[in-house]
Amino acid sequence: MSAFAALVEAGVVQENVPLAPFTTYKMGGPARWFVEARERRRLREVIAAWTKRHDAGAALVLGRGSNMLVADSGFDGLVIKLSGEFADIVIDDDVVEAGGGAPLAKVARTAAAAGRGGLEFFVGVPGSVGGAVKMNAGCHGSETADWLIDVDLLDLASGRERVVPASDLDLAYRHSALADSDLVVAARFRTQPRAVTESEQLMREVTQWRKKYQPGGTFNAGSVFKNPVGDSAGRLIDDVGLKGLSVGGASVSTKHANFIISESGATSRDVFELIEEVRARVTEATGVELVPEVRLVGDFNPAESDG
Ligand SMILES: Cc1cc2nc3c(=O)[nH]c(=O)nc-3n(C[C@H](O)[C@H](O)[C@H](O)COP(=O)(O)OP(=O)(O)OC[C@H]3O[C@@H](n4cnc5c(N)ncnc54)[C@H](O)[C@@H]3O)c2cc1C
User: Has this prediction a pTM greater than 0.90?
Assistant: First the structure.
């Protein structure tokens, strides 16, 4: 029996696990293979076994699924979800070290409670540390790149581990040089001293702003499109009159035009087709080509809807 088959038999790696519950859209099909890794030793073991498979396909790291649209047919490969020690947060003087699976809001609150400021903006981003590094997440005038020192990376293709300084990650607006095979095991952030009450006030402001301007209480993945240079995707979509446009159970939010929200029962295909429709209409009306910020996971080939 192969090492991978042994891990499947032991229940460490599971087969055909629905991904919908792990995403903020709450839709999409299953992962062919799924592992919830709680410790480095286990993660290394799974990756070593996976890379030895002659038919090893793609591997995908799933953070908190807040920037993902998973195809209705799912993902035909290995999905890795980090928890346990990968969610640890340790503060050492002015450095905050957080595991790749740590929720960003928890990082913000833990740092703030220790009198460390700078990361308060993370309270508004419902993702994980790994997802924030990959996407260079940001809001309210700050982004991950402003505070990141370095990351521990694990190469899912080779099992190699290395420490990479932030300056080598080519971090730019919702962009990093991380390959899909790079797993962020942990990240270190610099911080600055700040009174706890001041950090708490900053975090309150972030949360209040979001309540006011974003469609809370809906299934969505935040901003669907990146902002074009010097402009706002939401403004363009709104100006073209697309608020409320819908496909099946997915619609352009009437509160924030760069959010596509879904009703329960909506399919990923609905969201995907609406993304394409919005893109096409904005290009036709303005000449601007919107680029999705949301990561499309799996196969969105039109042939999918034939079955
Ligand atoms: C209501 C709402 C508001 C949002 N507001 C903002 C905002 O203000 N600013 C902003 O930037 N984003 C925002 N987002 C989008 C999203 O929260 C961020 O992009 C976040 O950083 C994604 O993190 P995640 O853990 O959910 O990543 P996922 O959605 O799980 O994954 C996104 C990408 O990151 C990769 N990834 C995840 N974890 C790791 C890891 N450990 N190692 C390597 N790669 C990894 C995945 O493979 C995938 O390619 C919002 C989303 C929602 C739903």
Answer: yes
